[in-house]
Amino acid sequence: MQITLNSPLDMHLHLRDEAMLQIVAPLSAHSFAAAIVMPNLVPPVTSIEAVKAYKERIITAIGEEHFTPLMTLFFQDNYDYDFLKEAKKQITAIKLYPAGITTNSEGGVSGIDSESLKMTLDAMSRLDIPLLIHGESNGFVMDREKEFVPVYEELAQNFPDLTIIMEHITTKASVEALNRHKNLYATITLHHLLITLDDVAGGMLEPHLFCKPIAKRPEDREALLDAALQAHPKVMFGSDSAPHPQHAKESCGCAAGVFTAPIALPVLAELFASHNKLENLQAFVSDNAQKIYNFTPEKKNVVLEDKPSLVPAIYDTVVPMYAGKEIGWSITSVS
Length: 335
Ligand code: NCD
Ligand code: ZN
Hints:
The chain is of the alpha/beta class. It has helices spanning 18-31, 48-62, 81-87, 118-127, 144-158, 172-178, 191-194, 197-202, 218-229, 246-249, 264-274, 281-293; strands spanning 2-6, 9-13, 34-37, 68-70, 72-74, 93-96, 131-133, 164-166, 184-188, 235-237, 301-305, 309-310, 326-327, 330-334. The protein has a 6-stranded parallel sheet with strand order 5-6-7-8-9-10.
């Protein structure tokens, strides 16, 4: 069995900086045509100069690969219309983190509601800049995403012209919310289609599957899988591939993030094929995102085949999901 994907897109990606950027950027750039690059560096990307400089570092790190980094700003509630009008020339979206909710999000927002974020959200709405949200409350870890759904709904209602993307959704509640508001969309990761909390902590603790939001219950995974396999027009693939050095994962105080970028496409192909839904993979990994973001990527054809391949145990300092294991599919060519 074989499939050719046209211009696969990763709509939520962490490329980091410095040494880590050099390791991970070429891996995404090899098999994806473009990706939405997250701004949670230290310090976060909050100025136009920082966006430009980061984009330059990414372009340098990917070398010869044909790949477009779609840049984002780290949301701040003091971005006004004039600033955003200038910024729009350099960015594709703005990412909002609740303060302290995940890796490098200390500078995020503490009260998320329409009233307090009005100036910036009005401007984004007028300028047609999508708002990407890490949607978690600071409640009990398994309930954080569900508790955040009313926040999404309040924003969606009060800013009907703002495109709001619920990033890396992990629950049935989020899938249901998508259908209630025309301006809500979502990204889904690879790992949340495959694992539940049991895989993280049901047996021996598995640090390489620990991420935010934490993987949830079987019925949640089913709801995500359903949406992805039918290529629900409001969902897109966003890996949330979030590399951390091995010592930061295999340690006391394990950093949150699963590194999936190099295995994402073959494992997605294997998953869709095993459900006889391979014909919907193109929409999930590219076409839906092109429509939602109103964007046409450069052409890149990735051929995948059901030929087993071995996942490396480590990429320099980073351990990928399925490290050292055999997966059922591989990339046979990229052109
Ligand atoms: C991400 C990271 O490490 O930057 N971690 C994660 O667990 N997904 C941040 C994020 O997307 O939450
Ligand atoms: Zn992320």
